[in-house]
Each structure stands twice: as structure tokens, then as C-alpha cells.
Amino acid sequence: MRLTPRFVWAVLVFGAMGCIQSIRCKPRSFRESVGVLEVNSSIDSNPTSIDESSSVVLRYRTPHFRAAAHVLVPPVAGKETWTVGWIQACSHMEFYNKYGDKGMSSWELPDLRDGKIQAISDSDGVNYPWYGNTTETRTIVGPTKKDTKFIVSMNDNFYPSVTWGVPVSDSNVPQLTSIRRDQSFTTWLVAINQGTGEMLVLQTIRWRMQLHIEIDTNKPLGQRSRLREPIAQEQPQILGKNEPIPPNALVKPNANDAQVLMWRPKNGEPIVVIPPKY
């Protein structure tokens, strides 16, 4: 449930009146008192842009996914430290670059691909389990005497490079004919007690990024590529019921360190082009 400022104020006044009438009334816990006043999430309306300025690689930039939450934390009575912020995990990834009748390269997450895990962390690789530690998180150190209001926000997009030539060849002869990408993510607004590890899921968002780029290598550089679909991405879903966070979404490795670049020839065995970092 989203709490309006007026509703939150009413709850706090009612709670204070209750304490006057009861000597044994205890301060409300963080779990009971933290409120999400507003959550916004969207994917920018601009289409994926394509950059053919390099004779070695094609680059593309997808529109940004954005999420922001306005959070209210009433006074924290105890000596507790809580961090509120965004955690994100990838739950599905297809990323195929086709090179005519030669074969295709693909970025893959082996454990996710093989169904060994439900999702993999999309942390920045430093501040596990958080997506980042600038605008993405806020830490409250108790005890505090006043309400704490703040906004935590994040954004995400893709800006990869794909070789024009077959990645296992020394040749730069352009043979790239299409790029397809389809990734799904779950993003959680979470509060974590730094002392006890207690975790509260405050909001859950699902989103997806898709694209299909068609390439004609017979055309001159700068005129080869065309975005086929989608021109506008599906907008994120802010779920009415929160989903639990899979264990792998909270720990190493993150998706960037676990991914592997494969070359899958039309005839022959797959080849590891770039192994995972982790």
C-alpha cells in the first residue's frame, strides 16, 4: 500500500496518543514505521540509437530504465543502522549477434541459461547487494529524533560494442547481419538492518528490454543498420504484491562478471571467446 503524507501523519498521531494511555507502550519498530510515499518507474520513450562511426565495432545505446522512491522513516529509537535502496537482478538474458551463414556470437550467463539459478545479481560489483551507492541508497543511523524523508533513485541502460567481423577471426571484414537482445530484470526497493541483516522488501518492479537490429553489410559504413523493433519499449510493472529476492541476487558474482562470450558456428563446436571474470 502506498502511504500518503496525510495518512502517515494520522498514523503517527494515533500512535503517540496510544502511548500516553499506556505506560508500557514501546517505540514502534523500523519494520512498522517505514513508509513508501511514492514510487515512479519508466523507460524513456526514445528508441535505441545506433552508432556506426567505427569500422571495427557497431555500438548501440538503449533507452534508460528509471526508478525513484520517496521514503519516510519516522524517528528511530534504538541504536540501529538501516540502509534503504535498490537491488536489481537479471532473470532472463538472450543476446545473439548473427554473422550470416557463419554462425553467431552470444553473451551468456551459464547458470541462468541452464536453470541452476532463478536470477543473478546486477550489482555494480562493489557494493553488494546494492545496485549502486550514490543516488541508489540512503543510510539512517539511529537514534534519530525527527522524521527522515529522502528519495532513492537509479537508472540502467545498455551500451555495448559488437564486432563487424566474426569474433574468432583476425579479419575485420564486415559479416554481422543481425543483433537480437531480450533481457528481463526484477528491481526491489529494500531496507536492510546493517547490524542484524534483517531485510524488508518495500516495493518490487519488473522490466524488460528488447531490440532487433538488422544489418546490410553491402552498404557503406554509416548506412548499414536499421532498428527493426521495438521502437518503444514496454513500460515497467510496479507490482501490487512484493516478490521475494532469490539468494543469488544478493551475492557475488554479478551479471557483468559472470557472463561469457561464446562463438557458436553453424558447423562445429562452440568456442569460448571471452571467459567469465569471476
Q: What is the share of helical residues?
A: 10-25%
Number of strands: 16
Structural class call reads mainly beta
- Strand proportion, as a percent range, falls in 35-45%
Low-confidence spans: pLDDT under 50, at least 5 residues?
1-27
Mean pLDDT over the residues:
89
Shape: elongated
Order of helices and strands: HHEEEEEEHEEEEEEEEHEE
Tally of contiguous helical segments: 4
Distance between the termini: 39 Å
Largest sheet features: 10 strands, antiparallel
Using only C-alpha atoms, the radius of gyration works out to 23 Å
Description:
This protein is mainly beta and about 280 residues long. The protein has a domain at about 45-65 and about 80-135 and about 160-275. The chain has four helices and 16 strands. Strands 5, 6, 7, 8, 11, 12, 13, 14, 15 and 16 form a ten-stranded antiparallel sheet that branches. The model is unreliable at about 1-25 (pLDDT under 50).
Give the SSE layout.
Layout: H1 5-20, H2 30-33, E1 35-43, E2 49-51, E3 57-61, E4 65-73, E5 81-99, E6 103-108, H3 110-113, E7 120-121, E8 137-141, E9 148-156, E10 161-163, E11 178-193, E12 199-215, E13 225-229, E14 237-238, H4 255-258, E15 260-265, E16 271-274
Antiparallel strand pairs: 1-4, 2-3, 3-10, 4-9, 5-6, 5-7, 5-8, 5-11, 6-15, 11-12, 12-13, 12-14, 15-16
Question: What brief labels describe this structure?
Answer:
single chain, 278 residues, mainly beta, ten-stranded antiparallel sheet, 4 helices, 16 strands, 10% helix, elongated
